[in-house]
Design a protein that fits this description.
Largest interface: A-B, 129 and 129 residues
Radius of gyration of chain A: 20 Å
Structural class of chain A: alpha+beta
Largest sheet of chain A: 4 strands, antiparallel
CATH class of the largest domain in chain A: Alpha Beta
Oligomer: homodimer
CATH superfamily of the largest domain in chain A: NADH Oxidase
Shape of chain A: globular
Distance between the termini of chain A: 41 Å
Number of helices of chain A: 8
Strand content of chain A: 5-15%
Order of helices and strands of chain A: HHEHHEHEHEHEH
Amino acid sequence: MPERMIAFHGEGFDHLARDAVYHAIATRRDVRSHFTPAPVDDDVLARLLQAAHHAPSVGYMQPWNFIVVRDMQRRQQVRNLFLAAREQELPAIEEERRALYRKLKLEGICESALNLCVTCDRQRSRNSPLGRWHNPEMDLYSTVCAVQNFWLAARAEGVGVGWVSIIDAGALKQLLSIPEHVTPVAYLCVGRVSQFAPKPDLETHGWGRRLPLSDLIMSETFSGAGETPLKSAIARLGDETGTQPKA
Amino acid sequence: MPERMIAFHGEGFDHLARDAVYHAIATRRDVRSHFTPAPVDDDVLARLLQAAHHAPSVGYMQPWNFIVVRDMQRRQQVRNLFLAAREQELPAIEEERRALYRKLKLEGICESALNLCVTCDRQRSRNSPLGRWHNPEMDLYSTVCAVQNFWLAARAEGVGVGWVSIIDAGALKQLLSIPEHVTPVAYLCVGRVSQFAPKPDLETHGWGRRLPLSDLIMSETFSGAGETPLKSAIARLGDETGTQPKA
């Protein structure tokens, strides 16, 4: 990590450094429409991958691999998988929303500079699976943490990332020669962008709205009301979600 | 988000802002041993939860809820679940590593300022499950992205987070009255810390070492060699992993 270049005050983050982290989180987007043909330098990609590699992992398992896909013919094949999967998914969508669904741009596989398949090797710690006896899916979750690290670092580098989730995982495994015991967790489109949209695409196009955060907070149990001071603090923050601050 | 306080240059991050993001990623720790009794202010917790709420989610589903657990008697009960689960997991660990496993501190449930259970409502978008027809686990992955946002924001606030994965999810659901269709994804210990350890605990205690990143990079397919310039760029970065830069 480029820590050697940083002058932080001991372990702390000053306000600007802290706000930089919040800024990356708040302005990160699932990019589909705004990729440009500009390349992503290997030096930048190396930093992004190192950020991913510094994710937490259950039992320090580090179960991830990163398949860099650049070949345009292969990407076309992946895109064909997406197109087929979209047709398969369509009947599961409410009838009155299908026209909108069809209009949504949901991938940038061929327009982005490169693709990245992030996988999880389910057997990497098979001799001593610390933390997975009860919850074997923890290695998949660790891999998702790596994806989110990559995504936020990319935002800070001005690189856009889009996660293609409409795809048949079995077909993708075959196309990328992924072995049986390895699970493809995320197929990412990665590239320079013309902009980071001010809001999520699905909000802009009317698919959904950001939920009011306070409604998602429970106290002590799932049905527990309470945490009034915390909810007041949330209201004081305001947001960019369309809901108005209440305090 | 506290964007209004930030003077960024348009959409870009200057070097210091970019490096702040990398610094949060590189120095984030799974905290178990270093919690202090200091409280976490509601204003801070509100920002952390808002960061979590800004995670990407499949189909803009936002499937998460956040149960704030403060009651010490309930936390003792959760800790009892951990202790029982650890005993159950022990036989799955290689015999020669069991003594080390027993010595590892793997949770800070009662020493941290508060606990947070992050859950995933599997039915939140049941009418229009965009992006989940082929991969229904995508909502769980979205919830993990929220956890990682929370974790990185916490690092920037000087707040430690530890993820307790050694626990029986069914028993935890019962204890927190979590309904059938909701999955507890992460049980987090959250609090002020005396330090962020320079390395992951499991590395310090000899459980594992960070893998060389270059070994995890594949080109085009899972068995594909290549990406030599990218691997050279990774070598130039150096790291804090014990492996030496090769260039």
